[in-house]
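To close the section, here is one more complete example, presented without commentary so you can practise reading it yourself. The ligand is S-adenosyl-L-homocysteine.
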Amino acid sequence: MSGFNFDVITLFPKAFELINNLGVITKALDKNLINVNLHDLREYGEGSYRQVDDKPYGGGAGMVLKPEPIYKAYESIRKLPKSKTLLMTPQGKVLKQKDLARWSSLDQIIIICGQYEGFDERIRCLADEEISIGDYVLSGGEIPAISIINGLTRLLPGTLGDPESLVDESHNSSLLEYPHYTRPLIFKDMKVPEILVSGNHKEINSWRRQKSIERTLERRSDLISNENYKKSPESEWINKNFYQLINVQKGNDFHYYPDW
Ligand code: SAH
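Output:
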């Protein structure tokens, strides 16, 4: 099969109908740039009730996905030469743009979605990587899986109309992207910065770079405090402005909640 293959093991295949309504991602599906193969865990359930979950040994709340159906579903999937298996879990490595870029040169990603209290520990060995989409807990792995499918598909050649839009965007270079404006020139007394209508591309680029750094310092100084930026051409400027910038108030007067 041509195109990038996502094989997803899930108890809720219908959750993936969202992919049929996701703009450029849906177009990528229509153009066969990606194939999303859903493997309904229920079909691999045990007995006449197709049981997929059971109570945890040792007691405690909730139900746990049984290992046999997940194994059977996994074994039914044809593995392509360049394939990786990802297990969705809030205990995994927190997903970064770099991970999506790294996986985009594969042929196939197999995604295992948990539900309820999670899955029997003995399925962990199926996974090449355990991935979390953030430090919070969702009810199932479907939304994390859709996030991965969406983020990775954007990176595949042919998905975005203009591949240039991948170059500057947030998290690509550990800087957040600069602010965007479109018409009208004045909206509710707010004017587009003059430099953007100056036609001077050199100046526009340097304004954007500056805004990108400012914005990263204001919102996500953790991204910029790494060693690379200490060596960057702007390092002196960053050091001088750092404390001033992180106190800037943003947007409609809302504050960023600090991490505890
Ligand atoms: N009791 C488990 C959480 C279960 S949540 C624990 O404390 O670790 C149910 C399922 O939702 C998980 O098995 C996982 O597949 C998915 N899930 C929930 N939050 C997630 C997150 N942040 N990232 C990735 N998957 C998540």
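Once you have examined the tokens, check your reading against these statements. Residues 88-91, 113-115, 117-119, 132-134, 136-138, 140-141, 144 surround S-adenosyl-L-homocysteine (CB under 6 Å). The longest helix spans residues 201-219.
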